[in-house]
Amino acid sequence: MVSPELLGPLLAQLGLAPARAVTPLRGGTGEVWRVDLDDGSAVVLKNFEGKKSPPDLDAFAGGQLTTLDVPVSRFLLVDDSRNHLPFAFAVTSYLEGHPATHFASHRHYGEIFLQIGALARQLHAITMPGFGTLPSPEHADNAAYIDALAGNAFERFLHYGAEPSLVEQLRRIFARDFDAVVPVTQRAVFAHDDLHPGYVLATETGDALAISGLIDFGNARAHSAVMDLAKTIFICEHMAPGCGPKIREGYGPIDHPTPQAALAFYTMLHRVIMWWWLRRIGVIASADADSELMQALRVTAFGTQH
Question: Which of 13, 217, 229, 236 has a CA positioned 20 to 30 A from the CA of residue 264?
């Protein structure tokens, strides 16, 4: 249990006022608390224990986004020493608002997806030095990056129980469309890779909703803008079916000669990766369990659910 008393020495080291209250926050993954301070300000404490990305990745990612119109958390401290607290953590500035999912029943909830599209556009204006993982992308070009990513994805897809005939057909489609979609991308951009209503904060003013912050950069990487847009639409459509056109409208023109083909190509790859990941962590209990992901992949491969 995180208490004001436990945080006392840490806050003093940061030159902050003592804590008067610690309140759990909801909406992301992992434990997060709002820490209200005696001077009326607040900070956020994030538990990074057991997360697949270290807190310094979040700090690095947030540091790339200082020019955004939408606020991002400012990291005050990143610590995995466990000298201050019994877990790896970060202390960040506090952003006003609730995860946008809080407003899912709001009659103007659809406006959030227009704003998500516009936010993705802002992120994609930030150029990265290569393609791949942050902070040091390992591939000089998109073709090498996607070839390596897909090779690993299809291997894991098969390993976790996908039907060999399905894997083979999806590989054919990948190879067929690769040259028309992948090499034309010359610029890697900042990709949140998990942009959805759970990871944007929103506020309500009158009857209007507005994004007030962007959080959680644990998936952030450097890749093509259209690949990240495909991931955004893919995840958001799962959470709010029919929102894709609003995201596209908010995003505006897609910088690719064949945008629809590129979105379909990368969506297929995202589905393959998501399926094996959900199998690995047990969300999809068995290889033959029915799922929207597998249904969509069968339609891509065979034109039917086969």
Answer: 217
Percent of the residues in the chain that have a pLDDT greater than 70, as a whole number? 96
Tokens of 95: 């952003």
Nearest-angstrom CA–CA distance, 56 and 52? 12
Is 0.85 topped by the overall pTM? yes
Which amino acid does the sequence have at 235? Answer: I
Segment holding 45, helix H or strand E = strand 42-47
- Tell me the average pLDDT across 42-66: 79
| Those residues with Cβ within 8 angstroms of residue 45's Cβ, 6 or more apart along the chain or in another chain | 2, 7, 22, 32, 33, 35, 89, 90, 91
Distance CA 285, CA 104 (A): 28
Kindly tell me the burial class for residue 66, based on how many C-beta atoms sit within 10 Å of its own C-beta (0-12, 13-18, 19 or more): exposed
Q: Coil, strand, or helix at residue 262?
A: helix
pLDDT for residue 81 is more than 90: no
Residues 6+ apart with CB under 8 A from 277: none
Which positions ≥6 away from 276 have C-beta within 8 Å?
A: 153, 156, 157, 159, 160, 162
